[in-house]
Design brief:
The chain is built from 22 helices and four strands. With about 475 residues, it is mainly alpha-helical.
Protein backbone atom coordinates (compact mmCIF):
# COMPACT_ATOMS: atom_id res chain seq x y z
CA UNK A 1 0.00 0.00 0.00
CA UNK A 2 2.90 2.33 0.72
CA UNK A 3 4.35 1.90 -2.78
CA UNK A 4 1.02 1.97 -4.59
CA UNK A 5 -0.67 4.85 -2.75
CA UNK A 6 2.53 6.76 -1.79
CA UNK A 7 1.42 7.19 1.82
CA UNK A 8 4.71 8.53 3.21
CA UNK A 9 5.18 10.88 0.29
CA UNK A 10 1.82 12.47 1.08
CA UNK A 11 2.41 12.43 4.83
CA UNK A 12 -0.41 10.09 5.78
CA UNK A 13 -0.97 6.62 7.24
CA UNK A 14 -3.35 3.70 6.73
CA UNK A 15 -5.18 4.67 9.94
CA UNK A 16 -5.65 8.25 8.78
CA UNK A 17 -6.90 7.10 5.38
CA UNK A 18 -9.34 4.71 7.07
CA UNK A 19 -10.73 7.52 9.22
CA UNK A 20 -10.95 9.79 6.17
CA UNK A 21 -12.73 7.12 4.13
CA UNK A 22 -15.21 6.51 6.93
CA UNK A 23 -15.79 10.25 7.30
CA UNK A 24 -16.49 10.67 3.59
CA UNK A 25 -18.82 7.68 3.63
CA UNK A 26 -20.88 8.92 6.57
CA UNK A 27 -21.06 12.37 4.99
CA UNK A 28 -22.57 11.09 1.73
CA UNK A 29 -24.25 7.76 2.57
CA UNK A 30 -27.57 9.58 2.57
CA UNK A 31 -27.51 9.34 -1.25
CA UNK A 32 -28.38 5.64 -1.10
CA UNK A 33 -31.68 6.29 0.65
CA UNK A 34 -32.46 9.63 -0.99
CA UNK A 35 -31.82 8.43 -4.53
CA UNK A 36 -33.80 5.21 -4.09
CA UNK A 37 -36.75 7.07 -2.61
CA UNK A 38 -36.69 9.74 -5.31
CA UNK A 39 -36.93 7.14 -8.10
CA UNK A 40 -39.43 4.85 -6.40
CA UNK A 41 -41.64 7.46 -4.70
CA UNK A 42 -40.98 10.85 -6.33
CA UNK A 43 -44.13 12.56 -5.00
CA UNK A 44 -44.04 11.04 -1.52
CA UNK A 45 -47.53 9.61 -1.95
CA UNK A 46 -46.65 6.01 -2.77
CA UNK A 47 -47.10 6.44 -6.52
CA UNK A 48 -44.42 5.00 -8.80
CA UNK A 49 -44.49 6.68 -12.24
CA UNK A 50 -41.03 5.38 -13.19
CA UNK A 51 -41.99 1.78 -12.45
CA UNK A 52 -38.85 0.88 -10.51
CA UNK A 53 -38.62 -0.17 -6.85
CA UNK A 54 -36.73 1.28 -3.90
CA UNK A 55 -34.61 -1.88 -3.55
CA UNK A 56 -33.61 -1.90 -7.22
CA UNK A 57 -32.38 1.71 -7.19
CA UNK A 58 -30.75 1.30 -3.77
CA UNK A 59 -28.56 -1.51 -5.14
CA UNK A 60 -27.92 0.31 -8.44
CA UNK A 61 -26.83 3.42 -6.55
CA UNK A 62 -24.57 1.43 -4.22
CA UNK A 63 -22.89 -0.53 -7.04
CA UNK A 64 -22.17 2.57 -9.09
CA UNK A 65 -20.82 4.31 -5.97
CA UNK A 66 -18.50 1.38 -5.25
CA UNK A 67 -17.22 1.28 -8.85
CA UNK A 68 -16.69 5.03 -9.19
CA UNK A 69 -15.13 5.51 -5.75
CA UNK A 70 -12.73 2.58 -5.96
CA UNK A 71 -11.72 3.53 -9.52
CA UNK A 72 -10.91 7.05 -8.35
CA UNK A 73 -8.65 5.58 -5.69
CA UNK A 74 -6.89 3.05 -7.90
CA UNK A 75 -6.64 4.98 -11.18
CA UNK A 76 -6.04 8.50 -9.86
CA UNK A 77 -4.77 7.88 -6.30
CA UNK A 78 -6.96 10.74 -5.12
CA UNK A 79 -9.27 10.83 -2.04
CA UNK A 80 -12.44 11.15 -4.12
CA UNK A 81 -15.85 9.48 -3.82
CA UNK A 82 -18.59 9.18 -6.40
CA UNK A 83 -22.28 8.36 -6.49
CA UNK A 84 -25.48 9.42 -8.23
CA UNK A 85 -25.36 13.19 -8.08
CA UNK A 86 -27.96 15.23 -6.22
CA UNK A 87 -29.64 17.67 -8.56
CA UNK A 88 -28.81 15.49 -11.53
CA UNK A 89 -31.03 12.74 -10.12
CA UNK A 90 -33.87 15.24 -9.64
CA UNK A 91 -33.39 16.47 -13.22
CA UNK A 92 -33.55 12.83 -14.38
CA UNK A 93 -36.73 11.98 -12.46
CA UNK A 94 -38.80 15.15 -12.40
CA UNK A 95 -37.78 16.88 -15.64
CA UNK A 96 -36.74 14.17 -18.09
CA UNK A 97 -39.09 11.35 -17.07
CA UNK A 98 -42.10 13.03 -15.48
CA UNK A 99 -41.85 16.40 -17.26
CA UNK A 100 -40.70 15.47 -20.77
CA UNK A 101 -42.42 12.10 -20.79
CA UNK A 102 -39.43 9.88 -21.54
CA UNK A 103 -39.56 6.47 -19.94
CA UNK A 104 -37.14 5.43 -17.18
CA UNK A 105 -35.23 3.26 -19.68
CA UNK A 106 -35.21 6.03 -22.33
CA UNK A 107 -33.63 8.45 -19.87
CA UNK A 108 -30.92 5.90 -19.07
CA UNK A 109 -29.86 6.05 -22.74
CA UNK A 110 -29.01 9.73 -22.28
CA UNK A 111 -26.91 8.90 -19.21
CA UNK A 112 -25.07 6.17 -21.12
CA UNK A 113 -24.46 8.58 -24.01
CA UNK A 114 -23.08 11.12 -21.56
CA UNK A 115 -20.72 8.57 -20.02
CA UNK A 116 -19.39 7.41 -23.41
CA UNK A 117 -18.82 11.01 -24.53
CA UNK A 118 -16.94 11.77 -21.31
CA UNK A 119 -14.76 8.70 -21.71
CA UNK A 120 -13.81 9.93 -25.19
CA UNK A 121 -13.14 13.48 -23.97
CA UNK A 122 -10.99 12.20 -21.11
CA UNK A 123 -8.96 9.69 -23.12
CA UNK A 124 -8.23 12.31 -25.78
CA UNK A 125 -7.30 14.91 -23.16
CA UNK A 126 -10.03 17.31 -24.29
CA UNK A 127 -11.69 17.30 -20.87
CA UNK A 128 -8.56 18.66 -19.23
CA UNK A 129 -8.29 21.33 -21.91
CA UNK A 130 -11.81 22.39 -21.09
CA UNK A 131 -10.79 22.90 -17.47
CA UNK A 132 -7.66 24.78 -18.53
CA UNK A 133 -9.87 27.10 -20.59
CA UNK A 134 -11.48 28.46 -17.41
CA UNK A 135 -9.99 31.85 -16.48
CA UNK A 136 -7.93 31.99 -13.31
CA UNK A 137 -10.48 34.25 -11.63
CA UNK A 138 -13.13 31.55 -11.97
CA UNK A 139 -10.81 28.74 -10.92
CA UNK A 140 -9.76 30.61 -7.77
CA UNK A 141 -13.39 31.13 -6.79
CA UNK A 142 -14.56 27.54 -7.39
CA UNK A 143 -13.35 26.09 -4.03
CA UNK A 144 -14.98 28.89 -2.03
CA UNK A 145 -18.18 28.67 -4.07
CA UNK A 146 -18.39 24.96 -3.37
CA UNK A 147 -17.58 25.69 0.27
CA UNK A 148 -20.59 28.00 0.55
CA UNK A 149 -22.70 25.40 -1.25
CA UNK A 150 -21.58 22.64 1.14
CA UNK A 151 -22.19 24.86 4.18
CA UNK A 152 -25.70 25.63 2.90
CA UNK A 153 -26.35 21.89 2.47
CA UNK A 154 -25.22 21.32 6.04
CA UNK A 155 -27.37 24.12 7.45
CA UNK A 156 -30.40 22.83 5.53
CA UNK A 157 -29.79 19.21 6.53
CA UNK A 158 -29.68 20.34 10.13
CA UNK A 159 -32.93 22.27 9.75
CA UNK A 160 -31.23 25.53 10.75
CA UNK A 161 -31.90 27.16 7.37
CA UNK A 162 -35.49 26.63 6.27
CA UNK A 163 -37.65 27.71 3.30
CA UNK A 164 -39.57 30.97 3.51
CA UNK A 165 -42.25 31.94 0.96
CA UNK A 166 -41.30 35.62 1.17
CA UNK A 167 -37.51 35.53 1.39
CA UNK A 168 -36.80 32.03 -0.01
CA UNK A 169 -34.74 31.10 3.06
CA UNK A 170 -34.96 31.88 6.75
CA UNK A 171 -33.49 30.92 10.12
CA UNK A 172 -35.40 28.19 11.91
CA UNK A 173 -36.97 29.19 15.19
CA UNK A 174 -35.15 28.34 18.40
CA UNK A 175 -37.97 29.82 20.50
CA UNK A 176 -38.94 27.26 23.13
CA UNK A 177 -42.24 29.06 23.62
CA UNK A 178 -43.23 28.48 20.00
CA UNK A 179 -41.27 25.45 18.84
CA UNK A 180 -41.20 21.91 20.16
CA UNK A 181 -37.96 20.81 21.82
CA UNK A 182 -38.04 17.80 19.47
CA UNK A 183 -37.53 20.21 16.54
CA UNK A 184 -34.92 22.36 18.26
CA UNK A 185 -32.82 19.50 19.67
CA UNK A 186 -31.26 18.35 16.32
CA UNK A 187 -30.20 21.93 15.56
CA UNK A 188 -28.52 22.17 18.97
CA UNK A 189 -26.70 18.91 18.22
CA UNK A 190 -25.44 20.31 14.90
CA UNK A 191 -24.12 23.52 16.45
CA UNK A 192 -22.51 21.66 19.36
CA UNK A 193 -20.91 19.14 16.99
CA UNK A 194 -19.62 21.91 14.72
CA UNK A 195 -18.01 23.78 17.61
CA UNK A 196 -16.51 20.53 18.94
CA UNK A 197 -14.93 19.82 15.54
CA UNK A 198 -13.52 23.36 15.40
CA UNK A 199 -12.03 23.10 18.90
CA UNK A 200 -10.51 19.66 18.25
CA UNK A 201 -9.08 20.87 14.93
CA UNK A 202 -7.53 23.88 16.67
CA UNK A 203 -5.87 21.46 19.08
CA UNK A 204 -4.60 19.41 16.08
CA UNK A 205 -6.52 16.28 17.07
CA UNK A 206 -6.40 13.86 14.15
CA UNK A 207 -9.74 12.61 12.93
CA UNK A 208 -11.56 15.56 14.50
CA UNK A 209 -14.33 15.43 11.89
CA UNK A 210 -15.08 11.73 12.37
CA UNK A 211 -14.82 12.05 16.16
CA UNK A 212 -17.23 14.96 15.93
CA UNK A 213 -19.72 12.94 13.86
CA UNK A 214 -19.59 10.01 16.31
CA UNK A 215 -19.85 12.38 19.28
CA UNK A 216 -22.76 14.19 17.66
CA UNK A 217 -24.52 10.88 17.10
CA UNK A 218 -24.06 10.01 20.77
CA UNK A 219 -25.34 13.43 21.87
CA UNK A 220 -28.36 13.08 19.56
CA UNK A 221 -29.43 9.78 21.11
CA UNK A 222 -28.62 10.99 24.62
CA UNK A 223 -30.81 14.07 24.20
CA UNK A 224 -33.44 11.78 22.73
CA UNK A 225 -34.20 10.84 26.34
CA UNK A 226 -35.68 14.33 26.73
CA UNK A 227 -38.07 13.91 23.78
CA UNK A 228 -41.34 12.04 24.22
CA UNK A 229 -41.67 9.07 21.91
CA UNK A 230 -38.19 9.61 20.47
CA UNK A 231 -37.09 5.97 20.48
CA UNK A 232 -40.45 4.67 19.26
CA UNK A 233 -39.59 5.92 15.75
CA UNK A 234 -36.65 3.52 15.43
CA UNK A 235 -37.18 -0.04 14.31
CA UNK A 236 -34.05 -1.85 13.16
CA UNK A 237 -34.84 -4.54 10.65
CA UNK A 238 -32.22 -5.84 8.27
CA UNK A 239 -33.49 -5.71 4.73
CA UNK A 240 -32.90 -8.83 2.70
CA UNK A 241 -30.10 -8.08 0.25
CA UNK A 242 -31.23 -10.99 -1.84
CA UNK A 243 -34.70 -9.49 -2.33
CA UNK A 244 -33.22 -6.12 -3.27
CA UNK A 245 -30.77 -7.74 -5.68
CA UNK A 246 -33.64 -9.67 -7.26
CA UNK A 247 -35.53 -6.43 -7.85
CA UNK A 248 -32.35 -4.86 -9.19
CA UNK A 249 -31.86 -7.65 -11.72
CA UNK A 250 -35.47 -7.58 -12.87
CA UNK A 251 -36.19 -3.84 -12.96
CA UNK A 252 -33.04 -1.81 -13.56
CA UNK A 253 -29.99 -3.84 -14.61
CA UNK A 254 -29.46 -3.65 -18.42
CA UNK A 255 -32.80 -1.84 -18.89
CA UNK A 256 -30.92 0.75 -20.92
CA UNK A 257 -30.25 -1.95 -23.55
CA UNK A 258 -33.44 -4.03 -23.36
CA UNK A 259 -35.97 -1.15 -23.31
CA UNK A 260 -34.04 2.11 -23.56
CA UNK A 261 -33.78 2.51 -27.33
CA UNK A 262 -37.51 2.07 -27.88
CA UNK A 263 -38.78 5.66 -28.11
CA UNK A 264 -42.03 4.74 -29.84
CA UNK A 265 -44.17 5.83 -26.89
CA UNK A 266 -42.61 9.29 -26.79
CA UNK A 267 -42.79 9.69 -30.59
CA UNK A 268 -46.47 8.75 -30.62
CA UNK A 269 -47.26 11.58 -28.20
CA UNK A 270 -44.73 14.27 -29.17
CA UNK A 271 -43.40 13.48 -32.65
CA UNK A 272 -39.99 12.63 -34.13
CA UNK A 273 -38.69 16.21 -34.32
CA UNK A 274 -39.50 16.85 -30.67
CA UNK A 275 -37.65 13.66 -29.72
CA UNK A 276 -34.45 14.80 -31.45
CA UNK A 277 -34.62 18.25 -29.81
CA UNK A 278 -35.32 16.71 -26.41
CA UNK A 279 -32.42 14.27 -26.68
CA UNK A 280 -29.98 16.95 -27.87
CA UNK A 281 -30.82 19.57 -25.25
CA UNK A 282 -31.20 17.08 -22.38
CA UNK A 283 -27.92 15.33 -23.16
CA UNK A 284 -26.24 18.74 -23.31
CA UNK A 285 -27.62 19.65 -19.89
CA UNK A 286 -26.48 16.37 -18.33
CA UNK A 287 -23.02 16.72 -19.90
CA UNK A 288 -22.43 20.33 -18.87
CA UNK A 289 -23.65 19.92 -15.30
CA UNK A 290 -21.72 16.69 -14.69
CA UNK A 291 -18.52 17.94 -16.32
CA UNK A 292 -18.25 21.14 -14.35
CA UNK A 293 -19.60 19.70 -11.11
CA UNK A 294 -16.82 17.12 -11.23
CA UNK A 295 -14.15 19.58 -12.39
CA UNK A 296 -15.10 22.02 -9.66
CA UNK A 297 -15.19 19.42 -6.90
CA UNK A 298 -11.96 17.79 -8.09
CA UNK A 299 -10.13 21.11 -8.07
CA UNK A 300 -11.55 22.14 -4.69
CA UNK A 301 -10.69 18.84 -2.99
CA UNK A 302 -7.16 18.75 -4.42
CA UNK A 303 -6.56 22.38 -3.50
CA UNK A 304 -7.61 21.66 0.08
CA UNK A 305 -5.47 18.50 0.24
CA UNK A 306 -2.44 20.24 -1.29
CA UNK A 307 -2.58 17.88 -4.27
CA UNK A 308 -2.05 20.49 -7.00
CA UNK A 309 0.97 20.45 -9.29
CA UNK A 310 3.30 23.36 -9.98
CA UNK A 311 0.79 24.75 -12.51
CA UNK A 312 -1.98 24.74 -9.92
CA UNK A 313 -3.77 21.79 -11.53
CA UNK A 314 -5.01 18.66 -9.71
CA UNK A 315 -2.66 15.69 -9.75
CA UNK A 316 -3.71 12.78 -11.99
CA UNK A 317 -6.59 14.88 -13.22
CA UNK A 318 -7.33 12.82 -16.33
CA UNK A 319 -7.43 9.59 -14.32
CA UNK A 320 -9.84 11.16 -11.84
CA UNK A 321 -12.10 12.31 -14.65
CA UNK A 322 -11.89 8.92 -16.35
CA UNK A 323 -13.12 7.16 -13.21
CA UNK A 324 -16.09 9.53 -13.18
CA UNK A 325 -16.87 8.83 -16.85
CA UNK A 326 -16.64 5.06 -16.41
CA UNK A 327 -18.80 5.19 -13.28
CA UNK A 328 -21.47 7.19 -15.14
CA UNK A 329 -21.56 4.54 -17.88
CA UNK A 330 -21.75 1.74 -15.30
CA UNK A 331 -24.47 3.66 -13.47
CA UNK A 332 -26.57 3.83 -16.65
CA UNK A 333 -26.15 0.10 -17.17
CA UNK A 334 -27.15 -0.56 -13.55
CA UNK A 335 -30.12 1.79 -13.82
CA UNK A 336 -29.30 5.01 -12.00
CA UNK A 337 -28.72 8.63 -12.97
CA UNK A 338 -25.41 10.42 -13.59
CA UNK A 339 -22.58 9.42 -11.24
CA UNK A 340 -20.43 12.36 -10.21
CA UNK A 341 -17.79 13.29 -7.65
CA UNK A 342 -19.42 14.43 -4.40
CA UNK A 343 -18.53 17.69 -2.70
CA UNK A 344 -18.68 15.78 0.60
CA UNK A 345 -15.26 14.30 -0.19
CA UNK A 346 -13.90 17.48 1.35
CA UNK A 347 -15.03 16.15 4.74
CA UNK A 348 -12.69 13.20 4.23
CA UNK A 349 -9.91 15.53 3.09
CA UNK A 350 -10.45 17.60 6.23
CA UNK A 351 -10.07 14.37 8.23
CA UNK A 352 -6.63 13.81 6.68
CA UNK A 353 -7.36 11.87 3.48
CA UNK A 354 -4.59 12.39 0.97
CA UNK A 355 -4.48 9.28 -1.24
CA UNK A 356 -6.67 6.86 -3.14
CA UNK A 357 -6.67 4.57 -0.11
CA UNK A 358 -9.32 6.90 1.35
CA UNK A 359 -11.46 6.13 -1.69
CA UNK A 360 -10.88 2.40 -1.45
CA UNK A 361 -11.99 2.39 2.19
CA UNK A 362 -15.01 4.55 1.33
CA UNK A 363 -15.92 2.18 -1.51
CA UNK A 364 -15.69 -0.77 0.87
CA UNK A 365 -18.14 0.94 3.22
CA UNK A 366 -20.54 1.52 0.33
CA UNK A 367 -20.31 -2.19 -0.48
CA UNK A 368 -21.18 -3.10 3.11
CA UNK A 369 -24.01 -0.57 3.06
CA UNK A 370 -25.81 -2.67 0.47
CA UNK A 371 -26.47 -5.18 3.24
CA UNK A 372 -26.58 -2.87 6.27
CA UNK A 373 -28.69 0.07 5.18
CA UNK A 374 -30.61 0.39 8.49
CA UNK A 375 -27.37 0.85 10.42
CA UNK A 376 -26.18 3.57 8.02
CA UNK A 377 -29.45 5.40 8.63
CA UNK A 378 -28.76 5.47 12.38
CA UNK A 379 -26.14 8.19 11.87
CA UNK A 380 -28.36 11.30 12.16
CA UNK A 381 -28.23 14.00 9.53
CA UNK A 382 -27.69 16.63 12.21
CA UNK A 383 -24.29 15.06 13.02
CA UNK A 384 -23.01 14.86 9.44
CA UNK A 385 -24.42 18.34 8.77
CA UNK A 386 -21.91 19.79 11.24
CA UNK A 387 -19.07 18.23 9.24
CA UNK A 388 -20.36 19.83 6.04
CA UNK A 389 -20.52 23.27 7.67
CA UNK A 390 -16.96 22.85 8.94
CA UNK A 391 -15.73 21.81 5.50
CA UNK A 392 -17.42 24.87 4.00
CA UNK A 393 -15.42 26.99 6.43
CA UNK A 394 -12.13 25.37 5.41
CA UNK A 395 -12.78 25.93 1.71
CA UNK A 396 -13.18 29.69 2.02
CA UNK A 397 -9.43 30.31 2.12
CA UNK A 398 -9.06 30.53 -1.67
CA UNK A 399 -10.82 33.93 -1.76
CA UNK A 400 -7.74 35.57 -0.26
CA UNK A 401 -5.92 35.10 -3.58
CA UNK A 402 -8.55 37.05 -5.56
CA UNK A 403 -7.77 40.66 -6.50
CA UNK A 404 -11.03 42.25 -5.35
CA UNK A 405 -9.96 45.69 -6.61
CA UNK A 406 -9.87 44.57 -10.25
CA UNK A 407 -13.41 44.16 -11.56
CA UNK A 408 -12.16 41.98 -14.43
CA UNK A 409 -11.19 39.46 -11.77
CA UNK A 410 -13.53 40.17 -8.88
CA UNK A 411 -16.84 40.15 -10.79
CA UNK A 412 -16.39 36.69 -12.40
CA UNK A 413 -15.05 35.37 -9.09
CA UNK A 414 -17.95 36.90 -7.14
CA UNK A 415 -20.57 35.48 -9.50
CA UNK A 416 -18.92 32.05 -9.41
CA UNK A 417 -18.87 31.74 -5.64
CA UNK A 418 -22.33 33.27 -5.02
CA UNK A 419 -24.39 31.72 -7.83
CA UNK A 420 -23.34 28.20 -6.77
CA UNK A 421 -25.12 28.20 -3.39
CA UNK A 422 -27.94 30.53 -4.47
CA UNK A 423 -28.93 28.28 -7.41
CA UNK A 424 -27.99 25.00 -5.72
CA UNK A 425 -25.80 24.15 -8.71
CA UNK A 426 -22.02 24.21 -9.13
CA UNK A 427 -22.17 24.40 -12.92
CA UNK A 428 -24.36 27.50 -12.96
CA UNK A 429 -21.79 29.33 -10.87
CA UNK A 430 -19.04 28.42 -13.31
CA UNK A 431 -21.30 29.41 -16.22
CA UNK A 432 -22.01 32.89 -14.84
CA UNK A 433 -18.36 33.40 -13.92
CA UNK A 434 -17.05 32.42 -17.37
CA UNK A 435 -19.67 34.36 -19.34
CA UNK A 436 -19.16 37.51 -17.27
CA UNK A 437 -15.39 37.21 -17.68
CA UNK A 438 -15.70 37.08 -21.47
CA UNK A 439 -18.14 40.01 -21.64
CA UNK A 440 -16.03 42.22 -19.35
CA UNK A 441 -12.82 41.30 -21.17
CA UNK A 442 -14.41 42.02 -24.54
CA UNK A 443 -15.35 45.56 -23.51
CA UNK A 444 -12.17 46.42 -21.58
CA UNK A 445 -9.59 45.72 -24.27
CA UNK A 446 -8.60 42.21 -23.15
CA UNK A 447 -10.36 40.35 -25.94
CA UNK A 448 -7.11 38.81 -27.18
CA UNK A 449 -6.57 37.10 -23.82
CA UNK A 450 -9.67 34.96 -24.23
CA UNK A 451 -8.86 31.52 -25.60
CA UNK A 452 -10.94 29.99 -28.39
CA UNK A 453 -11.90 27.09 -26.12
CA UNK A 454 -13.28 29.57 -23.57
CA UNK A 455 -15.61 30.96 -26.22
CA UNK A 456 -16.80 27.47 -27.12
CA UNK A 457 -17.54 26.55 -23.51
CA UNK A 458 -19.30 29.85 -22.88
CA UNK A 459 -21.52 29.33 -25.94
CA UNK A 460 -22.36 25.82 -24.73
CA UNK A 461 -23.32 27.26 -21.36
CA UNK A 462 -25.52 29.86 -23.06
CA UNK A 463 -27.16 27.12 -25.13
CA UNK A 464 -27.74 25.05 -22.00
CA UNK A 465 -29.35 27.98 -20.17
CA UNK A 466 -31.51 29.00 -23.14
CA UNK A 467 -32.64 25.55 -24.22
CA UNK A 468 -32.74 23.37 -21.12
CA UNK A 469 -33.37 25.46 -18.02
Amino acid sequence: MERFFKLKERNTTVKTELIAGMTTFFSMVYILMVNANMFANPFGDGSNPLGVSYGAIYIATAISAVVGTVLAGILANLPLAQASGMGLNAFFVYTVCIGFGLSYANALVLILLEGVVFIFLTVTGLRKRIFDALPEAVRMAIPSGIGLFIALLGLQNAGIVVPNPSTCVDLASFNLLKQRWADIMPMVVTLATFLAIVIMSHKNIRGAVLIGIIGGMGLYYLLGLTVDGFYAQFSITFMSPFAAFKEFGAQSLFKVFTDGFDFSGFIAQHGQANLLLTIATTALAFCMVDMFDTLGTLYAACERANLLDEKGEPLNMNEGMLSDAIATSIGAICGTSTVTTFSEVNAGVAAGGRTGLTSVFCGAFFFLAMFLSPIAQLVPGCATAAALIYVGLLMMTSVRNIDWNDFRVSVPAFLTLTVMPFTYNISYGIAFGLISYIVISAFTGDLKKIEASSWVIALLFVAMLLLTH
